[in-house]
Write a structure and sequence with these properties.
Blueprint lengths: L5 E6 L3 H12 L3 E7 L3 H8 L5 E3 L2 H6 L5 E4 L6 H10 L3 E5 L6 H14 L3 E4 L6 H11 L6 E9 L3 H5 L14 H17 L2 E9 L9 E8 L4 E7 L7 E8 L3 E5 L6 E4 L8 E2 L9 H18 L8 H11 L1
Parallel strand pairs: 1-2, 1-4, 2-3, 4-5, 5-6, 7-10
Antiparallel strand pairs: 7-11, 8-9, 9-10, 11-12, 12-13, 13-14
Length: 323
């Protein structure tokens, strides 16, 4: 790296790429020097503002000696393939979640990073969401006591992309089902907060009649003995939200990105007001803010030669649960 600036190559220029670019643009230690998309005209237009090179073949971007780190935002089934190729070529890698489609592939990517000495990070924005960070602090303080039940929800609309024949979303072979796409967020959260899952039972639906499931419920028991219920929907016609409910012997913690205030604790059946925990109400911006933070952490981890905040084994665990 020249003068502590990390030179970035982007793979896949969809909606997620725009959010990642916002993170790199806010990070003075990052410079986008190359972009890649199978649609060459799109790659060319997105490269122009940065004066970057553009490619329509991912292998060509990996071969670019000017690229020091690769940000992989391709359809899920390509994550393992190109992450491994990039690391073997000496590139640092940030992969959008899920890090792979199979648990064994996820573990192999971690081993490859250790063998090559490069930084591997997973863009699991859950770890950077302000609501979750505040909720975790209060759970650590034992504010709700022994936990009996945990409920999570991720809901928003992918109806347009499921209907788009050109989109990989909704196509099972591409990794477009909601369990591998959204489920890994909640499975990572359950690992981070509570140590993981002991047993589970999944239910899923195809409301939009595509080959990949667009709604699902996964329920079971956590390693702690508490029960959990995680729901996912790609057919909720609303802004994207994530909801967390933690029920314990001393109280209840409830967080929802579409509620104002977003996070409260209730201490007993007579507490009808609840205690507000300071989290900004931002139903349209909370997600991109967390993604900007994950980008900054990745750049910092490479430049400062440290591990990213997200534990790779926890993200591999999330893939294992989804699988």
């Amino acid at each position: 790296m020249s003068k502590n600036v990390l030179k970035i190559g982007l793979m896949g220029l969809g909606e997620v790429s725009m959010m990642h670019e916002a993170g790199y643009n806010e990070e003075p230690r990052a410079l986008i020097v190359a972009v890649c998309d199978k649609v060459e005209e799109l790659a060319k237009s997105r490269a122009e503002p940065y004066g970057a090179k553009y490619y329509s073949n991912c292998d060509d971007l990996i071969k670019d000696r000017n690229v020091e780190a690769v940000d992989i935002m391709l359809p899920h089934r390509f994550h393992y393939k190109y992450a491994k190729k990039a690391m073997l070529a000496g590139k640092n890698v940030l992969i959008e979640k899920p890090m792979a489609m199979k648990y064994r592939e996820a573990v192999e990517l971690i081993s490859t990073a250790e063998a090559t000495g490069v930084i591997l990070a997973v863009a699991e924005n859950t770890r950077y969401v302000e609501l979750y960070k505040k909720a975790y602090q209060h759970i650590e303080k034992n504010r709700v006591g022994k936990i009996w039940l945990v409920r999570t929800l991720i809901a928003g609309s992918e109806v347009a992309r499921y209907s788009d024949r050109q989109s990989w979303v909704g196509k099972k072979k591409a990794g477009g089902g909601i369990i591998i796409d959204a489920g890994v967020h909640s499975f990572y959260l359950l690992k981070w907060f509570f140590g993981g899952i002991k047993n589970l039972m999944p239910f899923y639906w195809h409301i939009l009649k595509k080959d990949a499931e667009d709604n699902a419920v996964v329920m079971g028991t956590l390693e702690s003995g508490a029960h959990f219920y995680s729901q996912f929907s790609d057919t909720a016609q609303q802004p994207w939200t994530e909801r967390l409910e933690i029920y314990g012997e001393k109280g209840v913690l409830v967080g929802d990105q579409l509620s104002n205030p977003p996070l409260k604790i209730y201490n007993g059946p007579m507490d009808d007001e609840g205690e507000t925990i300071q989290v900004e109400y931002d139903p349209l911006g909370w997600k991109i803010k967390s993604m900007i933070e994950e980008i900054k952490d990745f750049v910092g981890s490479v430049i400062e030669k440290r591990k990213p905040l997200v534990n790779l084994y926890d993200t591999a665990y999330a893939v294992k649960v989804a699988e």
